[in-house]
Specification:
Number of helices: 10
CATH topology of the largest domain: Rossmann fold
Largest sheet: 5 strands, mixed, barrel
CATH architecture of the largest domain: 3-Layer(aba) Sandwich
Helix content: 25-40%
Number of strands: 11
Shape: globular
Distance between the termini: 20 Å
Strand content: 15-25%
Mean pLDDT: 88
Order of helices and strands: HEEHEHHEHEEHEEHEHEHEH
Length: 388
């Protein structure tokens, strides 16, 4: 049975009122030959399921779809017990990382927050917190899908291509709480990347307003994920994605700085400087913002490659705070260029890594690959997401 036929079965089972389960028998595995997992709303992320099932079948696995149990309604009192991450094993296979109740809730909340359906989301997801980036995106893609109602909290815009190969832009608003909320839910769709494009305070004297910052690592003072991901866990940007962003910056001869981004939950951190400056100095951070580390940390948790491309909008430590007049002038001059660089990098990802960015760095050291016998398994992760 082909991957397409298996996905058809998964969707039919779901529409009939049950959670479908995917059963994978891997004859090459010595310790975990049969793996399985329940799914929900398979039509929303069909592109990913087809890709992963095709890989498994090509490697010699037997894959089948079966009905598991009746679907739980979103108003059922048991729902929140089934979505609690406290006892989750985040080393589960990527294909089966989320229980079906969590999928149902997250995909429903995506529609609530973004004003668009989960089925509209594309494989490449950009986050911003400025409407000006939305304006630039819509100028580039005038036929994109837009929110179906006004005044949604995090409006999303989708440039759709076949196979969900287009780009989604979500205006997430300001702060780590919003960044966690949206990345919690988007991760369920298994996107090929999440990228934060926003503004930052430049922390080095030689940086100029309008310079780019390409994050290589993050100093997390956002607090919203500390309970589930201790601050001592290092979080970095995806190396290949950063390479492609770097190429675009160099090609356009744009000024930029590589380095650590300090993400804080306190917009007015300048009013309580002592602790912040001590952390910034110790980490040798080059920029400060309020979202990037949160998106990257959730990308690490949920095994979604991520990166951050910021533009310096102010220099609070060097006599250039963010003020209304200067900020408006800067916004108008920078918005189109910023979005174009990000989109160009995504185009290169699509061309060079059609099966997903390598993400071996997001897999635990004691987690075996899902997708092939020992002689063909890609132990470096260079084929992308085949570990499942």
């Amino acid at each position: 049975m082909s991957a397409v036929q298996i996905c058809d079965e998964l969707e039919a089972i779901y529409e009939q009122g049950d959670y479908p389960a995917l059963r994978v028998s891997r004859p090459w595995s010595d310790h975990n030959r049969v793996i399985s997992g329940e799914l929900a709303r398979p039509a929303a992320w069909r592109w990913y399921l087809v890709r992963e099932i095709e890989r498994l079948v090509a490697a010699g696995a037997e894959v089948s779809a079966v009905a598991s149990r009746p679907r739980l309604q979103l108003h059922d009192i048991e729902l929140f017990a089934r979505t609690d991450e406290s006892d989750w094993d985040l080393k589960r296979k990527k294909l089966f990382l989320f229980p079906p109740e969590r999928m149902e809730l997250s995909l429903d909340r995506l529609a609530h927050y973004t004003g668009t359906s989960a089925e509209d989301f594309q494989r490449y997801v950009l986050f911003t917190n400025y409407h000006m980036h939305v304006e630039a995106f819509r100028e580039l893609f005038p036929q994109c899908v837009v929110p179906n109602r006004p005044d949604v909290q995090m409006p999303a815009y989708h440039h759709r291509l076949d196979g969900h190969g287009g780009v989604t832009l979500v205006n997430i608003g300001v702060g780590p709480s919003n960044a966690k909320t949206i990345s919690d839910h988007v991760a369920v769709l298994r996107p090929d990347l999440m990228m934060m494009i926003g503004h930052c305070g430049g922390l080095r004297n030689h940086q100029a307003i309008g310079d780019f910052v390409l994050a290589t690592a993050y100093l997390r003072s956002d607090q919203v994920l500390d309970d589930v991901l201790p601050r001592y866990v290092p979080v970095t940007s995806n190396f290949q994605l950063n390479q492609l962003l770097h190429e675009q910056l160099v090609r356009r001869d744009l000024p930029f700085r590589l380095g650590t981004v300090f993400t804080t939950s306190n917009r007015n951190w300048e009013f309580n400087q002592r602790t912040a400056l001590a952390e910034i100095g110790s980490a040798r951070a080059v920029a400060v913002d309020m979202e990037s580390a949160t998106v990257a940390a959730n990308g690490f948790r949920y095994r979604v490659p991520s990166s951050t491309l910021l533009v310096v909008s102010d220099k609070p430590l060097h006599g250039q705070p963010k003020l209304y007049g200067a900020a408006r002038e800067f916004y108008e001059s920078s918005k189109r260029r910023h979005v174009e660089v990000a989109i160009a990098a995504v185009d290169e990802v699509r061309l060079r890594y059609p099966d997903g960015l390598p993400n071996a760095d997001l897999r635990s050291t004691d987690e075996p690959l899902i997708g092939g016998p020992p002689e063909t398994a890609n132990t470096t992760g260079a084929s992308g997401t085949s570990e499942g």
